[in-house]
Amino acid sequence: MNPYRNFDNYLKEYPTEDGYFGKYGGNYLEDAELLRAFCEYAEGYNTIAQSAQFIAELRRIRKDFQGRPTPLYHCQKLSNMFGRTQIYLKREDLNHTGAHKLNHCMGEGLLAKYMGKKKLIAETGAGQHGVALATAAAYFGLACDIYMGEVDIAKQAPNVARMKMLGANVIPVSHGLKTLKEAVDAAFAAYSREYHEAIYCIGTAAGPHPFPLMVRDFQQVIGDEARAQFIEQTGHLPDKVVACVGGGSNAIGTFVPFLADPVEIYGVEPLGRGAALGDNAASISYGREGVMHGFNSIMLSDENGDPAPVYSNASGLDYPAAGPEHAMLHDMNRIHYVTIDDEEAIEALFILSRVEGIIPAIESSHAVAYALKIAREGKPNSVIVTLSGRGDKDLDYVAEHYGYGDAFLRKRGIVLK
């Protein structure tokens, strides 16, 4: 029996009508106003997203404004370094605004217009979601408030400037660890006050229903394109598919079209400085079931069951929970969740930059690093890696902490010709 056939009707089965992926997901909001807002949101999405007009307009936007389809690029020189593994990059860094985030932000902006809303509210960590949503707001003529932790504002100055230039209000969050989790808290609070005129646009495939469903639907374009492009280029399916996972939007969009195929799938989590609590953001690898931000999933928690402090040098991955669909697919043993630490990710960033002339985001570099691990095993493989974003936003941070590559690579015993 082919085990992959269990996934033939996957999209019809998950999530359930009330937003569950197995035991994960759902809507656990206690605030009555927020719960009412999310029910309105779910009803609006389920109605509007099925209309031919909405779908046709979204397709036109993707083609004419976003620049889709993005290329699937064979890294011939990088592949030749290892000899037996062929590495292909799904170039979401070439999507307009430089990352995959615009895939769902344009969909959410279009949904806001259809629902008669006047403002988009969101959080951002690395700033890519904030830039994408500010872009969508400008495109659709909507106001835009972006909540961002002060730590991330300091790390991601180029993206902060881009958001402001696009007309968004960037609102600093100064409580707690001043990073992504706190930005989500602040954005939720704002939405509960303003939902009559605004919609909240989460930056990942997490949160209360309908966010995990909606973001997956909008991001699935990545995997749909990559699968068709790989078959067109090679005549067969890849052996492996790899993407980085924080909350998991680029990853779930990449993975879902391959679930029913005989393909190994790897979600790469940030190990950060190590396995100790507070030193990483690898929630599936080191977490346990719990509820936060209105949904049930696997999360990193302290002894009281509250969300634990997390860390990664990739601001877009430092969130203490994975999306509920990832949690279910982990329990089903369909996706392998693995880890890459800070220095492995930076090594991959420098190698890809030097060998192929492509500077990836630190988030994406986690996925590239795992593909390099596969290649170093010396077995014949073909691997698709989703390059979720470009590294422009990280240049100052990388230069300050790791230099420009020469000394760092030498220290790790790597010599590039």
Report what the structure shows:
A hairpin with a 2-residue loop joins β1 (20-21) and β2. The longest helix has 17 residues, at 32-48. A 6-stranded mixed sheet has the order 3-4-14-9-10-13, with helices on both faces. Strands 7-6-5-8 form a 4-stranded parallel sheet, with helices on both faces. Strands 1-2 form a two-stranded antiparallel ribbon. It is globular and about 60 Å long. The model has no long low-confidence stretch (mean pLDDT 95). It has 2 domains: 28-63 and 101-216, Rossmann fold (3-Layer(aba) Sandwich), CATH 3.40.50.1100; 67-98 and 220-411, Rossmann fold (3-Layer(aba) Sandwich), CATH 3.40.50.1100. 44% of the residues lie in helices and 17% in strands. With 417 residues, it is an alpha/beta fold. It has helices at residues 10-13, 32-48, 52-66, 76-82, 102-114, 128-140, 150-155, 157-165, 180-194, 211-219, 221-234, 249-255, 283-286, 324-331, 342-356, 362-376, 395-402, 406-411, and strands spanning 20-21, 24-25, 72-74, 85-91, 119-124, 143-149, 169-173, 198-200, 240-244, 264-272, 288-292, 295-299, 336-341, 381-387. It is built from 18 helices and 14 strands.
